[in-house]
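Course assignment 3, question 2. Fill in each field.
Student: A.L.
Task: Predict the tertiary structure for the chain below.
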Amino acid sequence: MSNFGRGRQRATPFTIKGELLFGRNAILETLRAGQRKATRLWVAEGLKPDARIDEIIELARMNEVLLETVPRTMLDDQEPDVNHQGVLLETPVYPYADLADVIEAEGNVLILDHLQDPQNFGTLLRAADAAGVAGVVIPSDRSASVTPAVVNASAGAVEYLHIALVANLGNAIEKLEASGRWIVGLDSGPGSQDLFTTDVPTPAVLVVGSEGSGLTQNIRKRCQLVVSLPMLGRVESLNASTAGSIALYDLVRRTGADETVVVGGDLESSPPSE
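Answer field:
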C-alpha cells in the first residue's frame, strides 16, 4: 500500500526581512557583537539545557528581539537543508565596511582573490578574526559573499570583522600598498618563495587565491612577494582555508619582531634583537 500523501504537511514559511541566521555559535556571536540589529529569534520547543541557548535568549531579551518558542518542525520546514541546532535569528543583511576603514586600521589585511567555496570562506574568516587582522577585502564578482552559511561556517567570527566589498581588487591593492603595507601573495609556481625561509615585512596584505586556480594573473603580478608553503608529504597542496590560516599566523609570529628583513633577496637593516 502506498504511503504517498501520508507525510506531515509542511508549515507555512516565515516571512523574512533581511537574512535568517542559523546555528548556536553563529547566532550567539552575532548577538554578542551587535554589529547588526536582530529583530526576531525562533527557538525550538524542548531544547536540552545549554549555556549557549541560555545566553542567546538573555541577549535577545536585553536587545528587545522578539522571541518565539515554536515546534522544531517549523524550523525544519523553514530551513530544511541546514543544521539549525534549534535556533533561527532574523537580522538585516551583513553590513560591509568601507575600504578606507580597513586601510586606516592597524595591522595585517587579508585579501581573498575570488574565493568561491562558502565553507572555505567562512573557515578562513574565522582564522582571520583569531589572527587579529585589520580587515578583509573581497571582490564583488565571482566570489563568495557573507551569507548565513558563511556566518555559520565562521562560527560567528565574521560578525567581528571589517569586510570591504570592492569592484576592483587591483585598485584596492594599490591603496593598501600606499598605506605602507607589503603585498604578499600566497601561491605556488614560478618565482614563489618558501614562506618559512623568507622574511616578510609586516604589516602586510596577505592575498589568498581561489580553490584550484590560485591567484589570478593580474593580482599575482601586483604582489611584491609571492610565497608558498613547503609540501613535505605526498599531497600536492592544501585547500585555501588551511593554507591561508597557516600564513596568517605566520604573519602574527613576525609582527613586532626585530630582525634583519630579507625582501626579495635584498637585505634591509632593522634594529638588532637584544
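Instructor remarks: DSSP finds nine helices and 13 strands in the chain. The domain at 99-256 is CATH 3.40.1280.10 (Alpha/beta knot).
Grade: pending
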